[in-house]
Amino acid sequence: MTTGVRCHRAGPVATITLSRPEVLNAQTPSTWIALRDFGRALPGDVRVVVVRGAGRAFSAGLDLAAAQAALPELAALEPDAAADRIAGYQEGFTWLHRPDLISVAAVQGHAIGAGFQLALACDLRILTEDAQLSMAEVQLGLVPDLAGTGRLVDLVGYARALEICATGRRLGAAEALRTGLANLVVPAAELDAAVDDLVAGLLANNRDAVVEIKALLAGAARRSPAEQLAAERAAQVRRVRDLAGLGE
């Protein structure tokens, strides 16, 4: 089964494009391994990763034809081996959380199941006005297992995340913006320009400062107030020393 992934780099920006538009960029296990391998091979001077889908959808989620083969194979494994297999798939998503990168999902049309989880794996999301999001795994008797559950709770809270996952319902772009799932919603014709503007803004500032800011914000929910203040102090000392030429 084709991986359905294209990768392109232009200086500090890498773009990943899901490239099976004839099936609305449905994903297979090969897709997740390709994403994992791309993350492992990413050069260290890349600062921003943009994830997008070719055609009229971001991703319709799991390719059901591929699932007919992959799910029985997974079920036949011993539980530990099956969990290890899934861990390899998860790595295709979790590297987008890396502290030295900012990842941006450009979402048009459908982002369903694995497609929604791929958008959630990114730090920032720009949606078109026609975007539809759904955590649809429950409709197949499955659970979201591609690193999407924790990210969803972080963004919308436990109660709303439970309702979204347990019903599998669709969320439009307006609701996504209102609940914090989207950073920006634009007409479809303006998606590329909006992504370009955001990327330019991210690249305009000192990389080390941006990395420190991401680390401060990403860890804030898991720190006590005192720990967060200490983290801010330590980060600022590193920045001041670095700007003075005294950094390590």
The major β-sheet equals: 6 strands, mixed
| Order of neighbouring strands in the sheet with most strands | 1-2-3-4-6-9
**What's the total number of strands?**
9
Unreliably modeled segments: none
Notable features of this structure?
single chain; 248 residues; alpha/beta; six-stranded mixed sheet; three-stranded mixed sheet; globular
Give a brief description.
The protein is 49% helix and 17% strand.
Topology:
Layout lengths: L4 E6 L2 E6 L10 H13 L6 E6 L10 H13 L2 H16 L7 E6 L2 E3 L1 H8 L2 E5 L3 E3 L13 H9 L1 H10 L2 E3 H7 L4 E3 L4 H13 L3 H13 L5 H19 L5
Parallel strand pairs: 2-3, 3-4, 4-6, 5-7, 6-9
Antiparallel strand pairs: 1-2, 7-8
Helix pairs in contact: 1-3, 4-5, 5-6, 9-10
What report would you give on this structure?
The protein is α/β, with parallel strands linked by helices. It is 49% helix and 17% strand. It is built from ten helices and nine strands. The strands form two sheets. It has a six-stranded mixed sheet, sandwiched between helices. Helix 5 (148-156) crosses helix 6. The mean pLDDT is 96.
